Amino acid sequence: MKFFNAILASLLLLWAAGLSADYREEIDSLMDRVQELKANAGRMDNNARFDELVQISYDYAMLNFPEFATFRGDPRGQDRWTDSSEAAFLRRQQETDMFLEALSTIDPTALSDAQRVNLELLLDQQRRQVEGRRFPNQFLPLNQMAGPQQNIARLMALTTPRTERDYHNMVARLQSADKQVDDAISWMRKGLEAGVTPPRITLRDVPLQIRNQLVDDPAKSPMLTAFAQLPGSIDPLQQDSLRQQAYKAYSDVIAPAYERLLAFVEDEYIPGAREAVGLSALPDGEAWYAYNTKLMTTTNLDPVTIHELGQSEVKRIRAEMDRVIESAGFEGSFEEWMHFLRTDPQFYHTTPEGLLTEYREISKRADPALMKVFNHLPRTPYGVIPVPSYAEKSTTTAYYQRGSIEAGRPGYFYANTYALDTRPRWEMEALTLHEAVPGHHLQLSIQAELEDVPWFRQTGGYTGFVEGWGLYSESLGEEMGFYTDPYSKFGQLTYEMWRAVRLVVDTGMHQLGWSRQQAIDFFKANAPKQEHDIIVEIDRYIVWPGQALAYKIGELKIKELRAFAANELGDAFDVRDFHDQVLGRGAVPLDMLEANIRQWVAQQKARS
Who contacts 191 (Cβ-Cβ below 8 Å, separation ≥6)? Predict the structure, then answer.
């Protein structure tokens, strides 16, 4: 899910090429209607006005952000990209203000309970966007995790073409993809002028990522995989024509754009990038980090408090680790135990196929075990596939990409097969439970399949909830029959420690002036992850300030609420019912989650 959040953010800000006149006219018509609904406050039923504004918000998102429409399975705009010019960027800000003004005229007391919650969430999302304008995120379209060097191929892989029309749309996107690159370069130049760039050290692998997309034979490009074998329903001559058009678009449009990007990154961007790693080093950086912290955790916890909480959690988890080491009969020191786990060949696969096969086997063991802790399961299937080779070196151990029933796309758990000697088997159970089931795939698929809720509650993601659930899911392993040997149990604790370490090093670097090496050393001292993995993780925290805080904060809140419900309900407590309540309303801010659970507990007690 972490991957999806980053990619969606970059899509919404930075995909290029203009809207056609037809789409611009449709958007203008939507905004005219927004103004009318605002003017009709007091004369039109509040529920009807709100329903129409919700529909407008969906149509606006699909028309403005066709990459998001691809993700959703909406057919609109599949031949184009989002307009990321400066003019369009400013226009969307004005349109957001107009929508927020209209939304603010809705009287919440006139709505049903369900609609009142929907209004609260939609207002919250719009206000967070407006609050965040203070900070120039638009100047940061590229880092080692995402950007134009990866996003074209990722979107092409996300697309599920079935008809001749679908392939024509893909060709049209390829033919205009150079604008995605050129607009990103324009924003990065503005960032250089303003002193707002990623730290130089984190950009070291980006030139290789760009080169990995440059191939002599277009047929070998990862963004053209769909053209290797077209459906038999398409005439063979038309298949060849579409294929040749795609190859020509790559050679004439995309490859030259990537050459320009490579020259810019190597000659201008990396030399001009900042040295300091902390967000607080940027203009208005402390306030920016405080905003990110609040946004990602959906709490009012300040960075210093979170740092201290992280230190406390590190000590607690370390004590649990010591007990597991003792149970394994290991007689050496903690450092020797970590060296053993990092280096012993029994813990490592020697082929990518072996690694993927074991991940799939763990997933298949997890699927039936879900019935022990859940009543409701999603319909959307999922698979386990490797991280694309063009990005694997600087990508984290794994990530999840959600599926879509409407788009006919399963969810995917992406496992990194690069540097197999850094992918220990003892972490695989915890990682699978986090990324697949009962973690991200289960939670996000249940959310996407919710009925009687507006679109933004089916797709929206509050990181504190989503990633908190992912980490909480790892702790369900024992109830599901996992972690039966000390190594896999230590792996689960390592992953929990990893998230506690995040609280310390993220706030350390971005708030308290820690160096990158100081963060790496703290990580190495407390978790037996491989140095390559640790470095990739630390560099991720550097370019996504505050995102890493969401996991532990969210997990602790869910565990706190489970303990509260179990204590209040006693023998009447059923963890399956609790999980239904947590997931049954989609991702919400943590304070709303707490209110929901406390209300449910009160209702259960009243019935007994």
Answer: 136, 139, 140, 197
Strand, coil or helix: 401 = strand
SS3 546: coil
**Domain region containing 412:** 291-551
Per-residue model confidence as pLDDT tens digits over 221-234: 999 999 999 999 99
- CA distances (Å), origin 597, targets 132, 582, 590: 30, 7, 11
Domain termination site, one of 522, 551, 580: 551
Tokens of 28: 């203008």
Q: Are residues 296 and 271 in the same domain?
A: no
Length reported for the chain? 608
Last residue of a domain, one of 551, 582, 602: 551
CA distance 280 to 295: 16
3-state SS, residue 30: helix
Query: CA-to-CA distance for 593 and 564, rounded, in angstroms?
Result: 13
Q: Are 234 and 296 members of one domain? A: no
Residues 497 and 449 reside in one and the same domain: yes
Do 443 and 485 share a domain, yes or no? yes
* Distances, alpha carbon 197 to alpha carbons 257, 329, 487, in Å: 21, 49, 41
Nearest to 495 by CA among 522, 523, 517: 523
Q: Per-residue confidence at 21, pLDDT binned at 50, 70, 90?
A: low
Contact 336, 542 (CB under 8 A): no
Peptide bond into 438 cis (omega under 30): yes
- Does residue 241 belong to any structural domain of this protein? yes
Segment 121-140, tens digit of pLDDT:
999 999 999 999 999 999 99
Contacts of 93 (CB under 8 A, 6+ apart): 133
pLDDT tens, position by position, 142-157: 999 999 999 999 999 9
Based on the fold, state whether residues 244 and 299 are members of the same structural domain: no
Per-residue pLDDT of 569-605, as tens digits, reads 999 999 999 999 999 999 999 999 999 999 999 999 9
Does 312 lie in the same domain as 243? Answer: no
Number of domains in the chain: 2
* C-alpha separations of 313 from 335, 489, 499, 518, 553 in Å: 19, 17, 9, 19, 11
Sorted by sequence, the CB contacts under 8 Å of residue 89 that are 6+ apart come out as 13, 138
